[in-house]
Amino acid sequence: MKKLVKVISLLMAVMLITGMLAACSGKTGGKAGKVDVGIVLPTKDEPRWVQDEQRFKDALKGSDYTTEILFSQGSSAKEKENVETLINKGIKVLIICPQDGDAAAAAVEAAKKEKITVISYDRLITHTDAVDYYVTFDSVAVGAAQAQYLIDHVKGKDMPLYLYAGAASDNNAFLFFQGAWSVLQPKIADGTFKVANSSAAEGLKEKQELSREELSKILGQVTTNWDANDAKNKAQTHLTAASAALKGDVAVLAPNDGTARSIADVFASDGDIKSYVVTGQDAEKASIQYVIDGKQSMTVFKDVRTLVKDAMGMAVTILDGKKPETTGTYDNGKIKVNAKQTDVIIVDKENVKKELIDSDYYKASDFKGL
Ligand code: BGC
Questions:
Q1: Which residues make Cβ contacts (< 8 Å) with residue 234, sequence separation at least 6?
Q2: pTM of this prediction?
């Protein structure tokens, strides 16, 4: 019996040492190329995020800290994998723009376990306490500015209003729509606009403030999923179904530039649409050309240089062992996240040169007919 105990304990000791060796070598391999700040962006398929990558690279030139940028390509599983890769490279700070606000909770909880500071970038990660900071534009103001632009360009009464929204998996889609609704609702209620493509919005037209559930109902009908093709198909379906009374001169709330261009193309090709005013967001180069050409009415310029500067500034403050400054909080459904917020600028034909060329955001030679 004693012998058996001895053999077993010897075996266990051998297993323990082998295990430790394996763990060690795994870690050494994983740590090759140490990274201080990990950055995870949602997709390379939209110019918006490719631009953020470039702005990060520009901002990081000459920095003392090492960073690595990974893209999730529209997949929450890939996003989690990216976070794990960065954790294995020893990051101290994670800057992450989630593909899906709820689904990203698991990824940042894994980072938190390793004492990594998590900064939610542009989009809020929701329903988790594993977010330390949020760096964002004023997204409610984006929607409000789009709505105000439509109101300022409305002609007469009963103008058909086509509503579109972003992906319901993105908390920003709610903030944009909430901002737009707060400005549009009184003008829908008083008959300046009539909603052309959402029975849910029509049913709620007397309500100034919508709950998350009510917003969800509208988004369910008018979401583009942040996808230009989805947006195009929806717009085509809506125009095919629309009666003559819902055509003529119309207003279109399009949530961002990618969807605005495809929606605008559909409206432009409908013989019964006499004119349309259409919003956008992001100041994508292709949309700036559309604005110059009169095919898209406006865009909301969000200076990504500022967002990147704020996010990296925060990361460096944290790496230096200090506490970053914030300007307010955002409720993510679980906690109030300390946030730093940046203003947005409305751009149309009138001020496009001043805001985007004179500010060195883009080069004049990037456009025709400026
Ligand atoms: C961003 C927008 C972007 C959209 C689609 C939003 O969360 O704030 O700038 O156009 O996602 O990617």
A1: 164, 222, 224, 263
A2: 0.91
